[in-house]
């Protein structure tokens, strides 16, 4: 655990030191669980958006984009169930005075059981080598079976208690499992109670006439209320999807783990509208598609797993999470949900407007069913950033810190480094910069030794460094250095665009999806 905490601290420190993420309002001592993205963070974040948007919208002829407003009619949130049911079960520790999500305490307990099971599996794999049969071991080893059976029993009970809103049993479960405050070890708990997560605001010129509104807690409802508009104007037949990237706001009382859980965050969601009765088929298909999208990033297949929900939301008939191995363990990265026809039917009822589709093949009108994919952009940022941050020992015994981002996602694609500030080198660097800037985000840097400049670019994940020396001025060749291999090659200036493009283009990622 100490090692995981150390890794996480390095991630947070590196993110600030190299201009990726800053605490919001830091000169005023910050604002809890709110962060700003710096110059490099904004570039990486935008590249992640592009990767998602291109894979979701550009590569699918039956998926279109939308950008709905943050402020929406208040009845929308009544229809969607957020006013009545958008709650988290919270529990306080009487001794430490700290507040926790009760369900997360239990889930973290179960995660420890899974860690114990995994240790047994890893030991056996090491012992038996190539002869190891993982599936057989998982189903026959007594300890692994017991750990996972206990985990299943606990999660099923938690799901049942939350579904029935039996908060007393949730507290009883925490006490029976002897779960302690992770910081102090105290087991002195209050009762569990529900807390609504929506931020309220007002619309109007005066307090007397102002309308009560909410900052949207999710982006999905903006898609649902625009279903008819988009379908009619795009003329798409079912199945088709509507994708959106946008800000959402939740008054998280227990916001922690850096940008993993924040009060202001961004979602990338796609709602896929399908005929009733076909939703589970599309649900399974989208689970596979979304996992392939993640694996194309090359962060390691072992860092992903599916988690099927024991407790389904009020709108769902199937739900699963893609979990990622963050520095603090496996946690939800993306959700795939079969939402049935709940949302469109609810908005039809509350608005009095028809939100139906005429199916020419079935010759009937019906309310479509929906399969949703929803990923937190900030969580994706953290997954990519934390996994890419590495410390390497080189052949000469020295060390370097490198952010080995997928090249298409790197904030800066190439750094142009004139060896000296004289003899025509700065002018040639400027010429190369002006030639390449229309195609790539590049920078010029002439401070410090070339070695220090290389290390600085490694630390922000720049795939290429282009060094201009005295020979460059004479023969128009430059030295290009690869971030990952650190190999240097002498190439003609005229080849730079092609060399860089082959490695950093989104094509290289999208072809793997």
UniProtKB/TrEMBL annotation:
Q: Which SUPFAM superfamilies match?
A: Class II aaRS ABD-related, Class II aaRS and biotin synthetases
CC terms in the record's Gene Ontology section: cytoplasm; extracellular exosome; microvesicle
Molecular function terms in GO for this entry? Answer: ATP binding; bis(5'-nucleosyl)-tetraphosphatase (asymmetrical) activity; glycine-tRNA ligase activity
The EC code for this enzyme is 6.1.1.14
Q: Name one Pfam family in it.
A: HGTP_anticodon
Catalysed reaction per UniProt?
tRNA(Gly) + glycine + ATP = glycyl-tRNA(Gly) + AMP + diphosphate
Question: Per the UniProt entry, what is one GO biological process?
Answer: diadenosine tetraphosphate biosynthetic process
Question: Which PROSITE patterns does UniProt cross-reference here?
Answer: AA_TRNA_LIGASE_II
Q: Which PANTHER family does the entry mention?
A: DNA POLYMERASE SUBUNIT GAMMA-2, MITOCHONDRIAL (PTHR10745:SF8), GLYCYL-TRNA SYNTHETASE/DNA POLYMERASE SUBUNIT GAMMA-2 (PTHR10745)
Which purpose does this protein serve, as stated in its record? Catalyzes the attachment of glycine to tRNA(Gly).
Q: What is this protein called?
A: Glycine--tRNA ligase
Name the gene: glyQS
């Amino acid at each position: 655990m100490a090692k995981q905490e150390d890794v996480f601290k390095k991630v947070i420190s590196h993110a600030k030191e190299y201009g990726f993420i800053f605490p919001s309002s830091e000169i005023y001592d910050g604002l809890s669980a709110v962060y700003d993205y710096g110059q490099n963070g904004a570039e990486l974040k935008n590249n992640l958006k592009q990767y998602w948007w291109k894979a979701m919208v550009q590569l699918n002829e039956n998926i279109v984009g939308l950008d709905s407003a943050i402020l929406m009619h208040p009845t929308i949130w009544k229809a969607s169930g957020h006013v009545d049911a958008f709650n988290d079960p919270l529990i306080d520790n009487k001794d430490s005075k700290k507040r926790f999500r009760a369900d997360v305490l239990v889930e973290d307990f179960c995660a420890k059981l899974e860690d114990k099971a995994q240790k047994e599996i890893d030991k056996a794999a090491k012992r038996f080598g190539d002869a190891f049969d993982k599936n057989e071991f998982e189903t026959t080893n007594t300890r692994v079976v017991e750990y996972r059976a206990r985990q299943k029993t606990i999660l099923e009970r938690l799901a049942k208690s939350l579904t029935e809103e039996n908060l007393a049993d949730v507290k009883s479960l925490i006490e029976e499992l002897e779960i302690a405050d992770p910081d102090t070890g105290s087991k002195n708990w209050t009762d569990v109670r529900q807390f609504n997560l929506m931020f309220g605001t007002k619309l109007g010129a005066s307090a007397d006439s102002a309308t009560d509104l909410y900052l949207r807690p999710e982006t999905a409802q903006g898609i649902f209320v625009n279903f008819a508009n988009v379908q009619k104007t795009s003329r798409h037949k079912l199945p088709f999807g509507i994708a959106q990237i946008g800000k959402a706001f939740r008054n998280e009382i227990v916001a922690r783990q850096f940008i993993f859980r924040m009060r202001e965050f961004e979602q990338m969601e796609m709602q896929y509208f399908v005929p009733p009765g076909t939703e589970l088929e599309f649900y399974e298909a989208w689970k596979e598609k979304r996992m392939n999208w993640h694996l194309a990033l090359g962060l390691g297949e072992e860092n992903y797993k599916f988690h099927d929900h024991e407790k389904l939301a009020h709108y769902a008939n199937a739900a699963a999470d893609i979990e990622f191995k963050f520095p603090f363990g496996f946690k939800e990265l993306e959700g795939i949900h079969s939402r049935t026809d709940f949302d469109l039917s609810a908005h039809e009822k509350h608005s009095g407007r028809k939100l139906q589709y005429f199916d020419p093949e079935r010759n009937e009108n019906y309310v479509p069913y929906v399969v949703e994919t929803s990923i937190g952009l900030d969580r994706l940022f953290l997954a990519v950033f934390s996994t890419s941050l590495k410390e390497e020992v080189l052949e000469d015994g020295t060390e370097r810190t490198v952010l080995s981002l997928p090249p298409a996602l790197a904030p800066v694609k190439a750094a142009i480094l004139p060896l000296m500030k004289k003899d025509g080198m700065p002018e040639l660097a400027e010429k190369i910069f002006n030639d390449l800037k229309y195609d790539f985000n590049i920078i010029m840097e002439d401070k410090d030794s070339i070695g220090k400049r290389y290390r600085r670019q490694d630390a922000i994940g720049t795939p290429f460094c282009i060094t201009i020396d005295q020979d460059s001025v004479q023969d128009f060749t430059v030295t290009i250095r690869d971030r990952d291999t650190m190999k240097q090659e002498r190439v003609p200036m005229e080849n730079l665009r092609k060399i860089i493009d082959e490695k950093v283009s989104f094509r290289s990622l999208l072809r793997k999806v």
